[in-house]
């Protein structure tokens, strides 16, 4: 399972997660989304990005809080997988 970037990233886009990702699977979303996203097929599920995020926006896919479940589909869509 991949990690998912959720709503707290919107408008913040702190790149600390990008700096610690060993496989470089975190990307800038198109401007209208104003967030970063994780490519689910490139993510190795290492979790290095989770503690690096200053706004606690990153979760393992199976642990995404209910109010942010729509971000699972959004991450897949932004990666071109939906």
Care to describe what's here?
The structure is a single chain. By secondary structure, the protein is of the alpha+beta class. The protein has helices spanning 16-20, 49-52, 70-78, and strands at 3-5, 26-28, 36-38, 58-60. The strands form two sheets. Strands 1-4 form a two-stranded antiparallel sheet. A two-stranded antiparallel sheet has the order 2-3. The chain is globular. The mean pLDDT is 97.
Helix content: 10-25%
Question: How widely separated are the two ends?
Answer: 16 Å
Mean pLDDT over the residues: 97
Q: What's the gyration radius in Å?
A: 11 Å
Tell me the overall shape.
globular
Biggest beta sheet attributes: 2 strands, antiparallel
How big a fraction of the residues is strand?
5-15%
Secondary-structure element series: EHEEHEH
Secondary-structure-derived class: alpha+beta
Low-confidence stretches: none
Number of strands: 4
Count of individual helical segments: 3
Strand order of the largest sheet: 1-4
Give short descriptive properties of this protein.
82 residues; single chain; alpha+beta; two-stranded antiparallel sheet
Helices, strands, pairings?
Elements: E1 3-5, H1 16-20, E2 26-28, E3 36-38, H2 49-52, E4 58-60, H3 70-78
Antiparallel strand pairs: 1-4, 2-3
């Amino acid at each position: 399972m991949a990690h998912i970037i959720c709503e707290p990233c919107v408008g913040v886009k702190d790149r600390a997660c990008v700096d610690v990702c060993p496989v470089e699977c975190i990307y800038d979303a198109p401007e209208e989304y104003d967030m970063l996203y994780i490519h689910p097929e490139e993510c190795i599920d290492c979790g290095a990005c989770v503690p690096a995020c200053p706004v606690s926006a990153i979760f393992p896919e199976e642990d995404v809080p209910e109010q942010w479940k729509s971000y699972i589909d959004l991450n897949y869509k932004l990666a071109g997988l939906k």
